[in-house]
Amino acid sequence: MTESHHPNLPITRDGDIATVTFNRPEARNAFNLSMWQGLADTMAALSADDTLRCVILRGSGPESFSAGADIKGFETERGTAASEAIYARVFHDGMQSVRLCQHPVVAAIEGVCMGGGAGIATMCDFRVGDIGIRMGITACKLSLWYPYAEIAPVIALVGSAVVTEMLIEGRIFNGREAYEKGLLSRLAADGKVQEEALALAGRIAEGAPLAARFHKAAIRRLGEGGPITEAEELASSGFALTEDFQGAVQAFKARRKPVWHGR
After folding, report:
1. H/E run at residue 14
2. Cβ distance 52 to 16 under 8 Å?
3. Contacts of 196 (CB under 8 A, 6+ apart)
4. Are 188 and 156 contained in the same domain?
5. At residue 3, does pLDDT exceed 70?
6. How far is CA 70 from the centre of its chain?
């Protein structure tokens, strides 16, 4: 089992599904610099664990997924050119670690999902929430400039018009609005977010892990633009040489369920 890399980011595991909990309820699970670094380390470790099939991110308790960056810590963590350079790098690494995780990542969103918390959610492959959530990136309220690398995935997800509402107007969406805008991929019944997220992760885990990893990477690659190289096209046929594919063909012929080995 992969061990937690941060006391505020405990990991629990149920078979081939790992859950990371943002556990700082006294601050609505807001992230300080240490937690951004911990998120990067935690997601890197989970990504390297080939025995996993899916990762769930959630907040501790039903009132907050995450309020984003801890503004109270800005006086000591930010404010000079040197400290800002460090913060920007660690923030970027934490955010991108979610997007770059080889396994599918599900955000189980309850309550407040604001600023960097909403940013983390948009880095996930799936976002499950209920109507009672509050989701937005209100950088305009602080004269905070959201980084290019973290804006781009939100535009890819919901388009520039919605991102303009979020970043310039400071719109905060409830669950129904977030679902209609495309910020949520699933709108769960009230109080059923964790149950729905776990069921979704279970369905993902039932599929072929190598296929899920390839498709996640391919979707990200296509979103980055540029022509697909001949080597990339050739690699997309590599499944035919895998044990999982060959075993699945035999299982289909024998009318039995395939067993995935991840190789």
Report:
1. strand 11-14
2. yes
3. 108, 128, 186, 188, 189
4. yes
5. no
6. 19
